[in-house]
Amino acid sequence: MSVISNIARLDDLLPEETSRAGGKASNCARLKQAGFPVPDGIVVLSTAVDENIAAIGRHRWFLGVPGDERFAVRSSGIDEDGAGESFAGIHETRLNVARADLANAIDICRRSAGSAQAREYRRAKGLSETGQMGVLVQRMVPATVAGVVFTVNPVTGATDEVVINASWGLGEALVSGRVDPDEFVIAKATSEIRWRRIGEKGTDQAIDAALTDDQVRELTALVLEVERHYGAPQDVEWCYDGARFWIVQSRPVTTAVAAVDEIEWTRANLAEVLPDLTSPQALDAFEKLLETAERQSLGSLAAPAEQLGPFVKTFYGRMYFNLSQLRHVCRITATAPATMLKSMGHAESIHPDDEIAPRPSVRTLRALPALARVVWRHMRASKVIARHDARTRSYLKRLRGIDPRSRTDSELWAEIDRWSSSGPEFMQTVLLFGGVVFHEAPVWKACAKVGFSFERLVYPQLAVGERSVSAQQAFDLIALARAAQREPAATAYLLGDVDLGDVAQLRRRLAGTAFLREFDAFIDDYGHRGRYESDWALPRYREDPSALLQSIRMHLQQGAIEDPNTETARKEREAEEAWAAFEARLSPWQKCTLLPRVRRSVAMIKRYYVWRERVRSDLVRVLSILREWHLVLADRFVERDWLDARDDYFMLHLDEVASTIRGERPPHTLRSIVAERVAERTRVAGLRMPLLMHASRLRSLIRTSGVSAITTNENELRGQPVSSGCVEGEVVVVRDPGDFRHMRHGAILVAPATDPSWTPLFTLAAGVIVEVGGVLSHASTIAREYGLPAIANVRHATRRLRTGDRVRLDANTGVVTKLNTGDAAESARLSAVV
Fold first, then answer.
1. Nearest alpha carbon to residue 343 among 456, 458, 440, 272
2. Could you give the strand order of the β-sheet that contains 716-718, starting from the edge strand earlier in sequence?
3. pLDDT band of 177, cuts 50, 70, 90
């Protein structure tokens, strides 16, 4: 047998060889032989042996190829690129390979068939875990632009549209999710560009579109020819060398598959209440809890899971909401999606069509009973919160009367299981008050009608009146710091060289002081809260108050501590001025008709923010008590030698704990479960998960950082204003509550997101910048009530800003401007510490 057998040219690949060439190579051969612009190349069949590959450079195809030519080497799985299994991003690709390195690159691609991610994909698809691999070797195209095209709209499933993603350079960065591409939606029938978005592509040319309109139309015509050739919708990878377009891959895709693959997922509202890697126990429980609560609350307003997926899903240890489901609810209820997107903090992702409320349809009529039930709950919100308050008081009273140490495992679990069963009903109340868009929508509409800013009217009203429980926590913490300042013993202790996490020492040294009595009262009110408090695997303030005491220490170090209540009169005046400015835009008739409705809606928006924080705090109170019960079980599991450490218990799902307690699961299996979960968390810990993404992007996240490129304008950052005002100062970047000690009084806090455990930092900050959040976010609520200028949804803020940078935070326009970075070395050092 010749050493160069099992290798075929694309032009010569026979139909009977396609089963050994793999899907990618077979498709390229078919297109090239049909006359499409496919880069020339050869195929290493799956039956090739090492001897064939070692001698590849002597294949006759290379006679017409210059010696310094570079090549693209791509895996071509035998069961790859079919209608059901694309394997996109699973197998290896090597670009710009020299002829001398071809054998090694081919070997890497062949071996990727046995990678962990390939085996997992095969298991998920019900395929054999042993994959056969062909390899495609093609002449490297010197691409200036590259991307992918769907000949159906992958988001809506519309078959009359083509969707193009394009970016500068090679297409690998785009497919792997490392850049934010330009997007074009084109009408098939007319080649009209219906919509476009210029992505942040991370190059000097990022502000320019990667393709001209004429090039968009040329590419559209080419891929439609490919679609006609196959007689089915296609997912096409392409590149442009400055003179012509090339097809480097095409795979079939059905509308249903594409729609599922392109479901939008968002971490908005979740990233601020759950740690980046939530404990597996809490994550699994919340996923089930939220899914059940959403389905019960929305009923037929929600699309079936088989059409648009679940409402909540976990990807690589992070929980996401299904934004496509929320868009579906907007369509059913004839609501403009833009209002929902603004509330969630995705104003930058609003498509022009999102501003238009869809017309009611037949589906709207069918969902009227479910819609009426939702509206009825909003109309009865005052009664819902009253019933919640009564039920919570009764439930907490009963739980507090139980000593978990005196109960058996089964008795403890019966109570935990009872909570799990009633949890969805409790969560529906949280979701109801999270649905403040119900009252915001008419205000947005009214403001647009008279040409007045929604933010200018509403935000000042949210800063006055009854405080949310989280904002009150900040005011009470300042009062506690002032109490410490009045008492020399407390001041000396808190400013001394002591371990602020040693509660026993605190009580011993400050026994009998007024400060300790006020501290205990504060803990009675807020001790159930803590760092990422929704995850009951993490300690509460009652267990570890060091973050609170560190904040008090910083206030004491500054000297005089101002009373934040002095700002109340100013905020009330600003609220009155906002109403006066709004009324000045109204006609006499509108003052009689429109104004009363807007006032009622704004009042309800304020109540919803207060009620939502109260309900969330109540949820955490229950979880805090149940945490004590879980800790009892965890200690027992360690004592029985079922687990090595208390924290291992929180690696287990609740049903795994239950089955062990009931004797259905052998206890010796728990260690292996914990080991697998710890290994998985370690594997995905370094991933930077995007705030908003399509499901198709997940394929590459495990191999890349998954982060969109940062814009090249490093001196200006933009986001969504959530609390008005303007301030200049140095920033302190705090990425995790464990770094609270680095915060400085009067600094501008920069964080990925915040939950109520960050409240102590708000009492020190002069302004707030967060990467995640919208009007609904915790940072927005506290900043407004505490009178801090704040901007949310500032992309990559914690990486583009360094501790020590001086900035102007203009929360009236949503712009953060770097003024100077001071001493660069010191700035870098502080950032590294934080």
1. 440
2. 716-718, 815-820, 806-810, 726-733, 748-751, 767-770, 790-792, 720-723
3. very low
How is 130-199 classified by DSSP, letter by letter? Answer: S--EEEEEEEPP--SEEEEEESS-TTT--TTEEEEEEEES-SHHHHTT-S--EEEEEETTT--EEEEE--
Q: Which residues contact 497 (CB under 8 A, 6 or more apart)?
A: none
CA separation for the pair 167, 147 (Å, rounded): 6
449-476 pLDDT, tens digit each = 999 999 899 989 988 999 989 889 989 9
Residue of 724, 735, 747, 730 whose CA lies nearest to 796: 735
**Residue 243 — very low, low, confident or very high, per pLDDT cuts 50/70/90?**
very high
**Which of these, 44, 50, 36, lies nearest to 9 by C-alpha position?**
44
* Residue 103 structural domain: 7-139
Whether 390 and 293 map to the same domain: the answer is: yes
**Backbone φ and ψ of 236, nearest 5°:** -115, 130
Residue 812 vs residue 128, higher pLDDT: 812
**Domain-ending residue, one of 119, 139, 159:** 139
pLDDT, tens digit, 9 for 90 and up, residues 754-810:
766 677 777 788 899 988 766 556 667 677 777 788 888 787 888 889 888 899 898
Q: What are the strands of the beta sheet with 264-266, ordered from one edge?
A: 312-315, 318-322, 264-266, 692-694
Give the span between the Cα atoms of 648 and 279, in whole angstroms: 10
Over the stretch 585-599, which tens digit does the pLDDT of each residue have?
999 999 999 999 999
Sheet (strand 245-252) strand order: 193-197, 182-187, 161-168, 145-150, 234-240, 245-252
Residue with tokens 């935000």: 459
What's the rounded mean pLDDT across residues 46-69? Answer: 87
Q: Number of structural domains, the chain?
A: 4
The strand order across the sheet containing 7-9 reads: 7-9, 41-44, 133-139, 71-77, 93-97
**Burial of 240: CB neighbours in 10 Å, binned 0-12, 13-18, 19+:** buried
- 735 — phi, psi (to 5°)? -95, -15
20 in a structural domain:
yes
Q: If you count them, how many residues does the chain have?
A: 834
Looking at residue 827, what is its pLDDT?
41
In a domain, 169, yes or no: yes
The Cβ of residue 498 has, within 10 Å, a number of other Cβ atoms equal to: 15
What does pTM read for this prediction? 0.61
CA dist., res. 745 & res. 689, Å (int): 31
Q: How many Å apart are CA 281 and CA 372, to the nearest integer? A: 36
CB neighbourhood size of 3 (10 A): 15
N-term to C-term CA, the chain: 64
Residue 295 lies in a domain: yes
Query: CA-based diameter of the chain, in Å?
Result: 95
The residue type found at 629 is W
Of residues 683 and 749, the one with the higher pLDDT is 749
C-alpha distances out from residue 56 to 93, 134, 308, 331, Å: 18, 14, 47, 57
Question: Whole-angstrom Cα distance, residue 573 to residue 764?
Answer: 24
> Tell me, what CATH number does 53's domain have?
3.30.1490.20
Identify whether the C-beta of residue 470 lies closer than 8 Å to the C-beta of residue 617.
yes
Report the share of the chain in percent with pLDDT over 90: 36
8-state DSSP, 351:
-
- Assess whether pLDDT exceeds 80 at residue 269: no
Q: Judge residue 828's burial from the number of C-beta atoms within 10 Å of its C-beta, 0-12 exposed, 13-18 middle, 19 or more buried.
A: middle
* Nearest alpha carbon to residue 17 among 44, 51, 38: 44
CATH number of the domain to which 157 belongs: 3.30.470.20
What pLDDT sits at residue 150?
86
Answer whether residue 806 is part of any domain: no
Residue that is written with structure tokens 């159930």 in the block: 528
C-alpha span between 53 and 662 (Å, rounded): 57
Q: What is the mean pLDDT of residues 701-715?
A: 44
